[in-house]
């Protein structure tokens, strides 16, 4: 018999590997349990950064050594979104069940491209839930995506097929000069999707805002008429169920009506807010979302599912298959056996090999139930109102946008020539202090401190600490004890 060297990558000593695995799990449970004892974020030492610029190892190391390296050089220098003091950008906090689901999915190593397996049925279970949450018809299709950026790009492809039929997959959209409409506050992922889809960023017309910070629907209607007159082809309207800067929600019901009468595709960017429909209190804010032709949203933000987990829902499900199906011979379906089953996710999106994002989503929803998740979301909105109230009580602070959801924009008052730099300085000092991580954005052309209260762990006392630190830093920087750079 021919003897081959050992190539199996399983442990030689299962007992010690098991022991090490348990230690890793304990370390991460400790991390989650004791988050508040850590800084939210900390600057990365050069030595640590450089240590990740080495050549790949020819030989292997023990699991224990790699684990120690993770604890020492990776875990302390993450962005900090698990921490209750993280309020910069729209990031989810993650949960214990989400972490464990990632481990289970990793162990199973399922490939969700297709074939006859229950992991695909779990994804289809989520699709059924998603249809019900957003009151879409039974015929709606959907699929997990990396995030809303990918979902928006895919929605553009589907809308193209809806408009010109499957021949567009052979011929492209030709000489049409397509127009896509969105509020001027729309997320950058739409610009990127227009670029990547080949429609071009110039096809986007940015619509002005009304006084409440939402897309001005009357202005949109006028624009569509003018564009038709000019020989352009109005194609799609993108409404936001929560804009990234201020959390404003477009009048989705009015946009749905307009799109229907104008025969335009109605896409909703629900990355930030759509899952707010889990809360009976918040759901009415999203009235009209149920009429979208396509809805892209994220489980990994407000839904707290670990990264990454986005979802795309398409009202007219057959269009999704028409857009993405292929007939490669090695993907042929059989009546029985492993290659059985009609609904293969590879026919519903651009990917063939796909991870088991459905498991962590399914386990999160099963663990907490939508009522508790909805209550958590409503609580983050209550915290946003709480901090807005605190801001309005402080003479040196100024609220910069109405609070609709879980986002608060404010700034420290200062002379016009200094106010932008001063607030940027405050944001950086806060981040480097480890007390809290806010971020900066632009609201009506002015730089503001933005708190996105997405993390389920954030408490009123974290916000009180943040306001206290902003007041302290603002005073210190504006009295010139530290020169603004
Ligand atoms: C985060 C976000 C996106 C992009 O979603 P990803 O999941 O990061 O790709 C789009 N729109 C809004 C409003 C967002 O907050």
Automatic annotation (TrEMBL):
Entry keyword set: Decarboxylase, Lyase, Pyridoxal phosphate
EC number: 4.1.1.86
Main EC class the enzyme belongs to: lyase
InterPro entries, alphabetized: Aromatic_deC (IPR010977), PyrdxlP-dep_de-COase (IPR002129), PyrdxlP-dep_Trfase (IPR015424), PyrdxlP-dep_Trfase_major (IPR015421), PyrdxlP-dep_Trfase_small (IPR015422), Pyridoxal-P_BS (IPR021115)
Molecular function as annotated in GO: diaminobutyrate decarboxylase activity; pyridoxal phosphate binding
PROSITE patterns membership: DDC_GAD_HDC_YDC
Known cofactor(s): pyridoxal 5'-phosphate
Listed GO biological process terms: amino acid metabolic process; carboxylic acid metabolic process
Superkingdom, taxonomy of origin: Bacteria
Xref: Pfam families: Pyridoxal_deC (PF00282)
UniProt modified residues of type N6-(pyridoxal phosphate)lysine: 301
Family: Belongs to the group II decarboxylase family.
PANTHER family: GROUP II PYRIDOXAL-5-PHOSPHATE DECARBOXYLASE (PTHR11999), MIP05841P (PTHR11999:SF70)
Record's protein name: L-2,4-diaminobutyrate decarboxylase
């Amino acid at each position: 018999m021919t003897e081959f060297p050992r190539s199996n990558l399983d442990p030689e000593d299962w007992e010690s590997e098991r022991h090490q695995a348990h230690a890793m799990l304990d370390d991460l449970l400790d991390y989650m349990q004791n988050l508040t004892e850590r800084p939210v974020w900390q600057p990365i030492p050069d030595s640590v950064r450089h240590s990740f610029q080495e050549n790949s190892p020819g030989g292997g190391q023990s699991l224990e050594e790699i684990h120690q390296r993770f604890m020492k050089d990776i875990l302390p220098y993450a962005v900090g979104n698990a921490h209750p003091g993280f309020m910069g950008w729209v990031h989810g906090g993650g949960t214990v069940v989400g972490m464990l689901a990632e481990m289970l999915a990793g162990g199973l190593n399922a490939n969700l491209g297709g074939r006859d397996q229950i992991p695909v049925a779990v994804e289809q279970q989520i699709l059924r839930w998603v249809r019900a949450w957003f009151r879409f018809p039974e015929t709606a299709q959907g699929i997990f995506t990396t995030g809303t950026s990918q979902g928006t790009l895919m929605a553009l492809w589907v809308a193209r097929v809806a408009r010109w039929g499957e021949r567009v997959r052979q011929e492209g959209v030709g000489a049409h000069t397509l127009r896509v409409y969105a509020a001027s506050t729309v997320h950058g992922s739409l610009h990127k999707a227009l670029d990547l889809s080949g429609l071009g960023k110039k096809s986007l017309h940015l619509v002005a805002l009304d006084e409440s910070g939402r897309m001005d629907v009357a202005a949109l209607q006028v624009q569509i008429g003018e564009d038709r007159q000019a020989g352009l082809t109005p194609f799609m309207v993108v409404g936001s169920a929560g804009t990234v800067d201020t959390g404003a929600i477009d009048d989705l019901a009015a946009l749905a009506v307009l799109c229907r009468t104008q025969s335009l595709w109605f896409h909703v960017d629900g990355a930030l807010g759509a899952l707010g429909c889990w809360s009976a209190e918040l759901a009415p804010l999203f009235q009209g979302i149920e009429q979208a032709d396509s809805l892209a949203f994220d489980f990994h933000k407000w839904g707290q599912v670990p990264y990454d987990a986005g979802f795309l829902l398409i009202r007219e499900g057959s269009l999704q298959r028409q857009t993405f199906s292929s007939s490669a011979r090695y993907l042929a379906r059989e009546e029985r056996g492993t290659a059985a089953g009609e609904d293969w996710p590879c026919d519903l999106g651009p990917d063939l090999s796909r991870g088991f994002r459905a498991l962590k989503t399914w386990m999160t929803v099963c663990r907490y139930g939508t009522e508790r998740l909805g209550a958590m979301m409503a609580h983050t909105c209550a915290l946003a109102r709480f901090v807005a109230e605190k801001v309005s009580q402080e003479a040196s602070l100024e609220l910069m946008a109405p609070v609709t959801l879980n986002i608060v924009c404010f700034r420290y008052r200062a002379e016009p020539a200094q106010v932008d730099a001063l607030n940027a300085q405050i944001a950086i000092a806060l981040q480097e202090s480890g007390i809290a991580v806010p971020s900066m954005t632009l609201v009506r052309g002015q730089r503001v401190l933005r708190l996105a209260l997405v993390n389920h762990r954030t408490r009123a006392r974290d916000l009180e600490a943040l306001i206290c630190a902003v007041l302290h830093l603002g005073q210190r920087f504006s009295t010139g004890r530290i020169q603004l750079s």
